[in-house]
Amino acid sequence: xxxxxSNPKRRRSRRSxxxxxxxxxxxxxxxxxxxxxxxxxxRVSFSSAKTFARDDFVGFAQYERLFNTDRWIVSLHxxxxxGVLFVSCCLVIGFLLAVFIDQRVRLEGVFxxxxxxxxxxxxVATGLxxxxxxxxxxxxxxxxxxxxxxxxTFDWIVTQDKVMYCIVLAAVxxxxxxxxxxxxxxxxxxxxxxxxxxxxxGVPRWRYYANIVLPQLAPSVxxxxxxxxxxxxxxxxxxVAMTQGGPGDASEVPAKFIMDHLFNRANIGLASAASTVxxxxxxxxxxxxxxxxxxxxxxxxxxx
Length: 304
Description:
Blueprint (H helix, E strand, L loop, with lengths): L1 H44 L15 H7 L2 H32 L6 H13 L2 H12 L5 H7 L16 H25 L4 H9 L4 H12 L1 H16 L3 H6 L11 H11 L3 H36 L1
């Protein structure tokens, strides 16, 4: 009898060991290929490395040089502007699209596919499409002028003080569908009886969503916010495809600054310092979200 009972335990133990062994290659990849390279980059940022890595130590000299570089400061201003507009527009548009689909409209599946499809495209493809559309010689401006409106002007993509808005437009078009999908999943978890009760009380629909639905969507909104914020920090493909950082350095962003100094200007010390700054930015964005998640999990555990 004891032998019969021990067999299932042995099988479970063997499966557990097999699963652990199967995870070893992935764990080694994470430790060596990711954590190892991050630590190596941080170490290089404290050296005087140029074309090749060096084993010396120059303290924060690379960071001082970085923040005294006008191009880096411009890239920080640009990514801040991009981040505020991109995140806020994606959250608002994504929420409105989710509310629209949550009304059980006809052809719901078709609308979901249409709204989510841009996110399936690469940022390079998105950037090229919008670059063609916004090109004054080929896109919207040229098309409208062919219709007879000769004075129509829409040349933001070649205007220094407006080019970042073009990149925001392309990025919002691509990412709003992702926010819609996340928030729609949250909306489908809201009890429909709440709307019935609110309707009986005469609560307007906008107030129902603002005061009842949105607080319940806080975890979904938080997830969307973190994903969008990380996308802001690493924005690169769309900028390269649309403007190459121009005109001048008007659309320069930190990721492009890093790639240019790493591969084109052979200055891996400065590039490593810039990448370390961006890593710290990502960690600063993730830390509050992680703390909130862990705090909620602890409270749920205590309540149980």
